[in-house]
Amino acid sequence: MELSTERLKIIPLTLHQFKLLLDGIGEMEKELKLSTSNECLDGDTQEAMEGLYQEAVKNREKYIWYTNWQIILKSENKAIGSACFMKCPDENGEVEIGYGINSTYQNNGYMTEAARAICEWAISQLDVSLIIAETEKDNIASHKVLQKCGMEKYKETGEGIWWRIKAVD
């Protein structure tokens, strides 16, 4: 499966590709025949992705909800960021999205383009009725991404701001 936008390809990694990502982004890039990004996962992201990978292995039939989705800039054939769901939709049809874009590619609308495509895909799934996301209070760029994807702010905590978009009935 692959999602495509004007400038991007968004690919949910197979379990094998996800493992390669965790072993080093370069190995995953070789497998996907991508240009080298010279990026690496920071410690927090590595830890979070390892947890998601373990869940993907345990839930192979629903791994798509646990895997990493690579965001590839078509013009460079390069991975410039990624997104993921935090788990499969719960009993209420709620799923949480997370994402990040390499600093070199920020402020070009790529993350908005990718997040919009991923949210459209998720909301089209029969078991999804609500997509949520959490941002840090001072992450204005991420607030703008979610607003441009049609999300609305619905809760604020000491740590962050929560956003949501509901499926159209």
Short descriptors:
single chain; alpha+beta; eight-stranded mixed β-sheet; 5 helices
Describe the protein's architecture and organization.
The chain has 169 residues and is of the alpha+beta class. 33% of the residues lie in helices and 28% in strands. The chain is built from five helices and eight strands, in the order ββαααβββαβαββ. The protein has an eight-stranded mixed beta sheet. β4 and β5 form a beta hairpin. α1 (15-23) packs antiparallel against α3 and α4 packs across α5 (140-148). The longest helix has 16 residues, at 43-58. It is globular, with a radius of gyration of 15 Å. It starts with a strand and ends with a strand. The model has no long low-confidence stretch (mean pLDDT 93).
